[in-house]
Fold this protein.
Amino acid sequence: MEASTELVQEIVAKIMKEMSKTESVAEKKCDCSGGCKGNGSCKNNEDYIFSDVDSAVAAAKQAYKELKKLSIKERENIIHKIREKCLTYAERLSVMAVDETGMGRVEDKITKHLLVAEKTPGTEDLTTTAWSGDGGLTLVEQGPFGVIAAITPSTNPTATVFCNSIGMIAAGNSVVFAPHPGAKECTKFAVKLVNEASIEAGGPKNIVVTFDKPSIEITSALMNHKDIPFISATGGPGVVKQACSSGKRAIGAGAGNPPVIVDETADIKAAARDIIDGATFDNNLPCIAEKEIVAVEEICDELVEEMQKNGAYLLEDPELIKKLVNTVLIRKGDKVTLNRKFVGRDAKVILDAIGVYAEDSVRCIIFKGCKKHLLIVEELMMPILGIVTVKDFEEAVEVAVELEHGNRHSAHMHSKNIDRLTYFAREVDTAIFVKNAPSYSALGVGAEGYPTFTIASKTGEGLSSAKTFTKARRCVLKDSLSIK
């Protein structure tokens, strides 16, 4: 299944138009047969929700045993049903996620769900390698691990559940989801839909499960459970470090602070538009999004002017910039943390908080600062872009690599010079490198390739897919089945 960018945009526009005519989706009655709290998170027949780790893992382990008995075709039928659920409930899931977490934009989260449903690889991602000759036949096939522990973030809860479910189930695994406590209700609903899809396709129940009251303690116990052989951690550096220290197979989708370089050869109008589009998608929550700009001084003023034409608000008053720092960041001694109140919020909301009136058309806050500025050094996950001016391309690369902090996650560049694009790509050495496009092109939006919301930059797998969640199995048959 693959949809064009135009089709995705058309579907999103249609959904948003219908939403404006009706009551909030989160307030609609659930269409299940049981009781419901009114937000779609049912409290009836919730076999897939558990209060303790042992019970959750045991249920998922039983589902895995049943899943192993199914053919690849039957497994793909489950994936097909999961895609259908993701498409059908894209609107409700998106509203629920924004309502519960207070982060992001509904229309952009809808786009994420449509992208996941249409372009996430399924069982076709699994391949077999074969050698045949005088010594017989040797095969290497990709097999499941068993029960996967998937830790998911509050910034992108429901789309991550669907994306992980498609890839992990396609690989033959069952899943225990440990969501962020701030996104537990919408995650439960997403898990409910995946289970419905499995059952409707003739698959096992509890193919994915989660917890009634997720917590740090539950997540830690899950990662250390004896029946969990594989951990997929999408979140902050703490949970990724714990996963990678578990002694088990783990992939870590950790932090990033993606810089975007704009040099004097770039199409400045296109660069300004693309940077604003990428940095404001879901209010800068995606870890791949442009977090700061490094611009060659020759074109910096023109770039700023073009960004303002595309919905950027330029903060120039040093006192207002200082107020912005004190509003969106919290300092405790030498430690700086994000003010969660403003993570993933609209630019206008942030500007209102510092006493600046802006039109509703404003999508992003921009300002000029040095490479040591707190709002440039820190990964904000807010529609705020600091601009560092440099004298030439060589300095731009040095600054951008420094600001990326060695996360090896994502980086972007706008330039018409192929040699420069190649040089920066090699120097920054990130899992994702986007050239002359918005950051979300890395996920297949308006570009080639498949999407994922578990980008394992820390452990080196990059964009995860079904094959990421498999292990290699070699089968050797000596002196037979070679007909050369």
Remarks:
- Residues 5-21 form the longest helix (17 residues).
- The CA atoms of residues 444 and 472 lie 27 Å apart.
